[in-house]
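Regression report. Comparing outputs from two consecutive submissions.

Submission 1:
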Amino acid sequence: MKKILAVLLAVLLTIGGIAMFSGCDDGEDVIKVGVTQYPPMDYIDEKTNKWIGFDAELAEKAFGELGYTVKFVEIVWETKIISLQAGEIDVIWNGMTVTDELKENILLSEPYMVNQQVLVIRKADESKYKTQADLAKAAKIAFEGGSAADNILSEMEELEEDRLLSMEKQADTFLEVKSGSSDVAVVDIALAQKTVGQGDYMDLMYVNVGFASEDFAVGFRKEDTELCQKINDLLAKYKEDGTMDDLGEKYGVSV
């Protein structure tokens, strides 16, 4: 996948060059923020049809202070780097876990939140999955392609490739488990806390099996150093003035 990604990036850059990070919409400076349906970080409010969430509000506040109007663009997470480099979006702000691949290909902000991967299972299977080693019991494991879960599972040599089910959206993995098509999903803890044990997923639960903690960061193109630094300054400010804590309380996120 990484080799394919590198080739695609090279082709895109050769053909079209890299787009500048801001556009114009009715006289306003618009910045395109790449997101996915990922409650409580970024998701569409059913009543207003607008993007809301911890990251959505944080992005709108920060870019608003810098004079931009935010346009949220839903992307395919596995191809987020390509979307950024091609100019389809200007920034990735969507509970994005820092990885070596991201460090190599894009510019990252300072970390602003800690994350962790957990297992989502059916409550009826609670006794089966208590440790990372128990993943070997699963016939099928769902995860979002290009995610931190993808990285973790790909490094577990005991898991054969035909047992790993890559999904386009992290939220889709819950239906896989509920329907029985997969035995386990590996997802971000914030999403698991927001989703399982209620509504359509009342019969699901999540299990913390001790995967290493991760950092969330905002992603920029390599050349957008000035914009990245401005966001870093604002993130530090929001940690200090209580903005992060207020949003965390609003959306049930630990900051």
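Submission 2:
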Amino acid sequence: MNDILLGLSGGVDSAAAAALLKEQGFTVTACFLLLTDDSIKEEENARALAEHLGIKLITADFRERFRENVSGYFIKEYLSGRTPNPCVRCNPTTKIQSLLDTADKYGIEKIATGHYALTEFSEKYGGTVLKASPSKKDQSYFLSALSPSQTERTIFPLGLFSTKEEVRAYAEKLSLPNAKKGDSQEICFIPEGNYQEYICKYSDYKPEAGNFLDNDGTVLGRHSGIINYTVGQRKGLGAFGEPRYVKRINAADNTVTLCKKDERFETEISVRDISFAVNTPPRGDFSALVKIRSTARAVPAEIEYSDGRMHIVFSERVIAPTPGQTAALYDGNIVIGSGIIE
């Protein structure tokens, strides 16, 4: 059986993925995931693409699942003084799982998306997600919380492309109508990009001024509400006679601790909510490469794993580890798993 269900968003990546799968001999059914009220507008684009590609399109409404697992989680984390990564959360709980649930409904075994990554069987780990090498667009970090059962049924056709420009050139060669469409914004459910306004609109939170502190607890000034800040931030803090950066955010007492430039670095972090992406994960103490944000370089580290938590000691200092962000673990190019930075 070469049937496959592809998540078709209306963007150039998923459209190119559909065309590649057809070239590889798959019988492609497209699925538009309705995840937010705003995404209804994109359904028309997806339908036009499906017609151009000559594939069937079905629409699956998972808005309630998205609100529960992604946008609601996003708000809750920010109000707790953390900076969440909604994409890492969305893929295993909503996007990939919703495609799998829809595939099951139609008797389809495999699914695909337009992510820049690879899947491969490993003798050591079984089905795995790999970095899209040597792609500058690698998105394996955002897939680091997938379960092995999700990975084993998923294909990422774009993993062998090196750049977005190559994908656009491929789309133009096929005369895809969205070949020159711009990239989507970073947070798909906040079209205007103002996450502070979004949080205030969909919660009871009202920004409350509080104290800026230094590492010794001395009051440096006043902030405008904890949701306006994230660890490592420099801009928008005010003047203190020298550059200052956000070091910690404490929701309980509504304070934001600032530090000097050379105080942003850490060599150790604690990680909770561990999810392993491989069937035979490491246990106890082990070594791995660790990325603490999507744009960061993976750094060698020694890891102690016990009682569902990890203590990670890096081989070098890392800049501004941010509570709420994901620490993704790699064995070479293979994604081992991930957890949330405490």
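Expected: both submissions complete independently.
Actual: both completed, but the second showed a warning that disappeared on reload.
Relevant detail on submission 2: The mean pLDDT is 93.
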